Every structure is written in C-alpha cells, then in structure tokens.
Amino acid sequence: MKLLSLRTFRHGVHPPESKDETSGSPIRQFPFAPLLVLPLVQHLGKPSVPEVREGEHVVRGQRIARPDGFMSVSLHASASGVVRKIALTPSISGRMVPGIFLEPHPASTQEASQGTPCPLETATPERILAAIQDAGLVGLGGAAFPTHVKLSLPEGRSVDTLIINGAECEPYLTTDHRVMLEQRDDVLMGIRYLLAVSGAARAILAVEANKGDAAAHLRDGLPDDLPASVELLRVKYPQGAEKLLITALLGREVPSGKLPLDAHALCVNVATTAEIGRLLPLGRGIEERVITISGPAVERKGNYRIPIGTPLRFLLEQVGAREDVNRVFLGGPMMGAAVPSLDIPITKGTSGVVAFTDTEAERTHRKVYPCIRCGYCLDACPVFLNPSELGILAGKHEYSRMAEDFHLMDCFECGSCSFVCPSHIPLVQEFRAAKAAVRKAALAERAS
Amino acid sequence: MTGPGRTLEIRTSPHILSGYSVDSIMFNVVAALLPTTLFAVYAFGLAALATLTTAVASCLLTEQLACRMSGRTSTLGDWSVAITGLLYGLTLPPGLPLWMVAVGGFFGVGLGKALFGGLGLNVFNPALVGRAFLQAAFPVAMTTWTLGFTPDRFSALPSSTLTPPFTQPLYDGLTGATPLALWKFERQLTEVGDLALGFVGGSAGETSGLLILLGGAYLVARNMMNWRIPAGIFAVVAAASGVLHALDPQSYASPLFMLFSGGLMLGAVFMATDMVASPMTSSGCLLYGALIGGLVVVIRVWGGMSEGVMYAILIGNGVSPHIDRWIQPRVYGTRSREPGS
Fold first, then answer.
1. pLDDT tens-digit map of A360-370
2. What interface predicted TM-score (ipTM) does this complex get?
3. Domain count, chain A
4. Which DSSP letter does residue B12 get?
5. Does B14 reach chain A within 8 Å, measured CB to CB?
6. Helix (H) or strand (E) holding A302
7. Which residue range forms the structural domain that includes residue A392?
C-alpha cells in the first residue's frame, strides 16, 4: 500500500534496474592515467580559454582555462604534471574538440591546491554564482549545463522550491546513491548555498524508493534550521527528468517550451549539490567526479572518484573488460551515448561508464516490423506525445509537421518509446534527426 | 589490453529494450485462442478441424503469394496471418463447404490486408473482411448451422463440408438455428448457462464465452490487449439491453443473453481488439468499444439480421482512424488537446 502512496508522474516505463551490483560499493579513488585529456568544452556553451602553454608545469586544482563569457566555465588541472600539448581530441559527439593533454608527475603526492574560499555566511548571491562558475561546475547528472547559468534568475523572476534531484532513474547508475550515503554533509552544505542563491523558501530532496537507505540517511541528518525535506518517489523511468520531478512533487506542469523556472521551481542534481558544498568553502575547482563503472563486460564494477580527463582505454584497463566487450556507453543505457573510440576521456558530465558484451548488445539487434498501432509508445511517453504518429511522419520526412502539429520539440529523448516498441522502430533516433533538421531550418530562416 | 582488438559497436540509445516484439505478441494471441479452438474441435469434431485448417492454410498461402508478388520477404514469421486465419475459421459455421472457406480466406487476406500494404496498414480486420465477403456471396450457407456434439462428429465429415467447388452444399445432418436467431424470429430463449459454456449452435469458435474470456484475461495480464475495448463493448451492450429488457422483457432479451450469445464474446475480445484496426489512446479505445457495443444492440434489436457483431466491428474499424485524429493525448505543458491536423 505504501508503494501506491509514493509520488510520481504519469506514464513512463520500468526497465530492469541493474543497480544491485554497484549500489553497495563504496566510492573508491581511481588512479591517475599516464596521460589525462581535458577537453575545453565539457559543458553546453562556449569553450574555455586555455591559460597554460605547452610544457608548462601545473599543480592539481590549478585553473588551466578560464571561462569565455557567461555561457562558459573554468577548467582545472586534474593532476599535478606537465602540459604536453594543446590539440584536438575525439569527443563523444564524434567531432574533434580542442583539449589540454596533461601528463601527471608520477612521483607527485597530488596535493590539491586551494583558491579563495567562498564562505556561506558572508557571501552575496552574486559572489556565490561567480564562485560556482570559477569552480567549473556543470550539471553532473549528464546534461553538463553550466550550473551558474541555471541558477541565474532573470530580473523579476522567482522560485519557491528548490528540488535536489536524487532520483537516479537510469539503470546501472548508482553514483548519486553513493554520494547521498557518503557525502551527506556536502549535500546539506550545497543546499544552503543553493537556497541562498536562488531565494527559494524550501528544498525538497527527491529520492527514488529503491534508495530507501539513502533517503533515511539524509532524513536523519537534516538539521532543524534547514528548510528541507526528503520525499520518496516511485521507481519509474524517467523520474529524474526535471519537468517530471516538478510534476511529481509539486503537481505543476512546466509550460511547453519553457523552463522549470516558469513553474517557480529549480532542479539541481544531488551530485552537483554535493560538489558545490564540498568545493565552495575551500575555493577549489572540480577536477574529479564520482562515476559508476558497471555492465556485464566490466570485471571490477563499482563507484569511483575519477580524475576528469581519464581516457576510457585506461579506465577499462584498470577495471578489467571482458574479451567480448561489444558496446561502451557514457551514462545509463536509456539515454547514454555509445562511444566510437576508447580515446575519449571522462568529462564533467559523465555519470557512468557501462559496457555490454555481445550477449546484451544482441538483444537490441531486433527485426524492425511496421508500426502495428499498438499504442504502447503513447502509454510510455512521459510528456504525452504520439510517438507512433511522429514515427510515421519521420519516415516521410515531414519534419515541420512533426514540430507544428505533434509537438516534436517537447520530446526530450528519454527513449521510453523505443524501449517499449514491439516493432523495434528506432523512434528516438528518428526524433533526434528530425529535431536537428527543424533547428537547422529555423536557423536558416532567421539568417535569410 | 581491452577493446582495441575489437570493433566497438556504435548504436543510439536506448541500449536496452523491453522484450516485447510483434511476433511474440501475435504468438501469444494465437496461444490465447487455443482453448477456444480446442473446444470448437471438441464440439463440432472433424467439421471444425477441417474448416479451421482450411481457413488458416488459405490465409497463410494468400499472404505468401502477396509477399512473392510484391517482392517482399515472407511475413509469415510474424504470426499475424496465423491469427487472421484462426479467427476467420472460428467465425465460420462448422459445416461450411471447404471451397467457400478457402475463397473467403483469399479475399480476407488479399483484399483486407495485402492490398492495403500488409501488416500495420490494413484499416479493417482481415478476418472479418473474409467473413463479410462470404456473408454477401453465400448468405444461405453462412447461416446454416450444423449442430455440435453429434455422436459421429469424430468419425465423419458433414456432406456439406466436401461440396465440390462452385456448387451449393447439401446438408444431410442435423442443422439448427443459433440462439440469437431462435430469439429473434421465434422468441425462444436459450439458457444463459448453456451459452456461457458453449453447448449451443453457432460458428465454430463463438460458442464458449467463458473460454474466450479466459484467453482475453491472459492477454490483458500480459499487457498484450487493451481491456478498455471489450469493457466498452460489454458496458454499452449490457446497459442498453438492460434498459430495453426492463421496459419490456417479452420483446427484449436480457443483458446476459445479449453478452453471451452469438459472436459478441469472440468479437469483443479477439476481433475488435486487433491493434492495427483499433484506436491508440485509452479514451479512444473506450469510445471505440462503446460505439461497437451500441451498433451491436441496434443491429440485433432493430436490424433485419439476428447477429450484428461483424458489421459493428467493421464499422468501428472504419471509424477508428478518425477517433485517433479527434482524440490526441494532451501534450505535457499545454492546456488543451490539440488535434493532429
């Protein structure tokens, strides 16, 4: 009966959770790779501008690239070492992006340097925002949107509720789970900073019911003077999507095409919150993060605090990958992107690395049938689109009609429709392509 | 060293699937039809066996021929034609000449499915298209019902079954009217208990309401059937006939009789729920079910025929795309439902 009373959103799907193998594994420190690669764009926005030259010696935690304007963040050295080169490196998007290649000193103790602390008691909201940008913080849940931009409320706008997102609805991933269990003080400190900067009256820590231990641990530690509560949510994918969290917790809908702000709410990932609470009092930047390494092809699964810039090849060597590894993707299996190359490094937005063997990969090699109008996708779509109709239109390349008549642009690519489709139509893939085409057409129209 | 020896596969997310597939859904529908099918053979013996075999074979052959002609690979593996054939066979009178069964199967799949473009594109339920064709072409044969539970049903075929092609059948065995016809034309009522269990005359597979419900319950439990469609049909049929029966029990049959007689159970549970030819939204399915239920009552009570399930479902199929156009889900973050076009 308790299950029924838990809050949630409508529709959605129930993929196998696959979390048991790592949810009990404490966060361990990951070793430094012989060469770290730090792309200058690890966030949505403009690339950072390097402040170091090739051959320069840097200290762990030292800023090595500064933000280029508001839509950009700082970048810090994830190890003490030598800048070997600044050159192009492959990225998850498939494009080559500029990056700083850093060779850690093998003998260094890797003591992290500190900057100017931003004490909670005396800092103004502006000062906190600047400190967050200086710390190089982006959404650690996977979106990698610059956190200070998200927290900068436009003139005259206000939020009443701050939602700390600990839903972690993606299968396999348990980083947020471990962070809530092991970094409670950091999370609570982060909430204080976030409340101060956003002006929200209260904070809600949203945790899916499969992490009851984390929820209880947080609840036990809530100080009396902190206007925060812990809410358990029903286990359902994609519960962690901002808009759906807001609907589940506050009963409000974010208007189509608008931001959570328009529903007077602000969502921040719990790992991001913990990093704010950990870094700001010390004036440090983010140079490592917690990730889950899991999947049937991984031998030593677990949660690791890993230096930003660790190449996947080194990562898989350390944890041991099975001979029949077939597919490696960053993030969870529902929304994660498969990597084309093991030379891609871990970036700030990487919440996990999951590796599949041929066996799991083969399960997605299914025969594609015509749409049989079963309606499963309509019952799965959390934003109540009609994926079947959109899929049929995508087949005819009627992209503008998809956008105008069927709200294509409201799709946030959670993958629920593709997950349930018994005809195995690659719906999300088609929608991604269609969205790109619509954006391109809009840009072209603006230019002419 | 890991990875480099192997080529990594790049695919877009999601990297896991629910496990549902068209062929598994269709196969489960066939499985859910098994109790009904076995009871048909038990009740009508060799006649039902021959009818069902011919029906399935003619449908499969027609589909195979259509694939060959259009240059596509065979689609028999998706099991959807097997359902069509089985359902079609179950709606036929057990003593129907086999050549008629074959002709109907050919028209059902050929006209009702292949010409529309195959799986997923047919507007009407192909099994019912085949049956409707036969009803129009051979009205007498389609309404002559050999009786079930005859002692020699497992040793001899009715003479009508093996009628040579293009000749009219001669019935030597016992034939009788269906409970619906008895009621409509002679005001003779059949016990509801007999109806539910299937000890009555009628089409091969429509006589045992309880076994049909059992199959339907299995599919609903496995989320392979939208329960709202039969629910809508049952609700409207029960309500409308309930009101009429209360007003004048002499002229109007009781709701239970209406629900368990004729092809209503088979139609509501297995025909109207054809995913391809029914609406996609939940409320659309309720409306569609209600519409079919209403039509069944209208045709049965005021129409010239004793049975109306087939036409009610075919009309429902025709309206279904329009229901899907009228009833679109309300997109998150928008105030009103917006029509698709």
1. 988 888 999 99
2. 0.91
3. 2
4. P
5. yes
6. strand A302-307
7. 376-447
